[in-house]
C-alpha cells in the first residue's frame, strides 16, 4: 500500500525567527552585521538552501524531471522510429491493444470493489472500538499482513489457491468446487483482488482506529444518556466525526489498488490467464521490461498518471475541505 | 447495556474467525516447510511430524538467499540513511527557517507525492542507465531515496513544526550556527519521528519488488524479494523448500513488526486525522 503518498497536514510553517533575524540583519544594517553576528550572517543566509539542497536535487532530478521526460517520450516512436516524433500513434496503439483495454476494465472493477475494501476495515474498527472481547489482540493480528511484502503474500497464496491446494480441499469437503482460482480468466482477477484486500485491510483498520481515538467520548455518552439507540449514535455522532478518516481511507485504498498490486500480479498470475489480470502498472512493466517498447510504456504511464491525477485532486480537495471544517 | 454486551460477544465470533484467517496462511506455510515432500503430497493439512529445518537450510543454500539478504541489507541501510539525513535536513529548513522559495519547494514536494513510480519508471530507468547506475547498489539506493523522500520530508516537516521556535532561538543565542542547531538540537529532538519514518522507509524498501526488478536485472544483484519471486520456478516440484524460502524472507519483517508495531502504525496514520 502506498503509504508514501499521504501528506501529513504540514506546511512550511516559517515561524522560526532564527532565519528571519539573519535576513533582517542583512537588509537593514549591513555594516553592523559584521560586528554583531557577522560570524553567522552569511552562512545563515545560505544555510536553509544547503539544508534543503539534497532533498530538492533528488526529488527534482529523479521524480519531477523523469515525469516531464516520460510525457515527452510518449510522443516518440519505438524501435526503427526511435526518437522520431510520432504524434499520438502510441496512444492509438495503446487503445487498440486488448491487453491495455483489459487493464482499464480491471481498473473499473477495482473502483467497484472499493466500497468493500473500505467497509471491511471500517466495520472491524467499529467492533474493536466497542471493545469486543479480545479487541487488543485483533488489532495486532489484523495489521500484520499489511507489513508483509506482496511477494511473500503472493507466494503463500500460490500454495493456498493451487488447483490441488488447501482452498479447494476445503471446498471439496463441503461438496463444492474445485475452482481453478488463478487459472480461470473469470476468477483470477477476483482472487488477486481478494488477496490484496486480505493483505491490506489492516492498514485501513489502523487509520480508522486512529480516527476513533479522536472522537469525543463525552458526545457519545451524552447521546446515549439522551436515549439514542446504538445505530442512531453511530449515524449521527460517530460517522460525522469520522468523515475525514473515511475520505482518507477511500483515497489511500484506491491509490493502493492502482499502484501496489504489481508484486501480487507478478507472483500470482503474471498477468494471465489470457491477460485477464492485467493492470496499467503491470502493462507498463511488461512493455518496458519484456517487449522493449519504452515509448508505448511511456504512453501507458501518462494515461495512468491522468487517472492518478484525478485521485490526487480528490485528495487535495478533501484536505482543503477538512481544513475548513477544523 | 445488556443487549450491547451480547452484541459484543456476537461480533467477537466473526472477529476471531477473521483473526484465524489472517494468521492461518502463514501457519500453513510454516507447517508445509516442516514436512517432507512425501508428507506434503499425502496430506497438506496434517501437522508435520516434528520440527524439521531441512527445507529452510535447502532454500538458504540452494537458492543463494544469503547473497540476496546481503544485497537487501546493503540497499535498505543505504537508502534509509540517505532518506533520514536528507529528510530531516529539509524538514528542519521547511518548518523552522524562513527563506525565499521555501513555499515553492514545499509545494514541489507535495506534487512529487502524487507521482507513482509506475508513471516515471521508463524515463527513470533510462536516466539511471545513461549515468551507468543500472544494476549497481548506488543506483537502486538513489531510486528508493527518490521514491520515499517526499513522504519522509513531509513527516519530518510536520514533526518539526511541533517543536517550539523558542528552542531554536535559545540554541542560536548560545552561539550555534544553523548547522549546529540542526546537528545538536533538531536531530536529537527528532528521534521519535526519525525512528518511526525510518522503520516505515525500511519496510517500503525491503518489500519492494518492482523497482528492484527494473533496476537490478542481474541474478547476483537480486534483492531478497526478487529472489523470492525466483523460488517458484526453482522449486516448483519441491513445495516444502519453496515454503521454507518464502518464510526466510518473511522473518525479518516479523521481527521488526513485533518490536516496532506502534511506530509503524504511527507512520501509517500520519495525516489521517486533523492536527
UniProtKB/TrEMBL annotation, chain A:
This is Sugar ABC transporter permease. Belongs to the binding-protein-dependent transport system permease family. One of its GO terms (cellular component) is plasma membrane. Gene3D superfamilies: MetI-like. Keywords: Cell membrane, Membrane, Transmembrane, Transmembrane helix, Transport. Residues 104-315 form the ABC transmembrane type-1 domain. It is a multi-pass membrane protein. It is found in: Cell membrane. Residues 12-29 have a biased composition (Low complexity). The chain crosses the membrane at residues 46-65, 107-130, 142-163, 188-215, 248-268, 295-319. GO terms for biological process: transmembrane transport. Pfam families: BPD_transp_1 (PF00528). It comes from Glycomyces paridis. Residues 1-37 are annotated as: Disordered. InterPro entries: ABC_transporter_permease (IPR051393), MetI-like (IPR000515), MetI-like_sf (IPR035906). Residues 1-11 have a biased composition (Pro residues).
Automatic annotation (TrEMBL), chain B:
One of its GO terms (biological process) is transmembrane transport. Coiled coil: none annotated. InterPro entries: MetI-like, MetI-like_sf. It holds the Pfam family BPD_transp_1. It is found in: Cell membrane. The keyword Cell membrane applies. The keyword Transmembrane helix applies. The chain crosses the membrane at residues 12-34, 68-92, 104-125, 137-156, 193-219, 239-260. This is Carbohydrate ABC transporter permease. It comes from Glycomyces paridis.
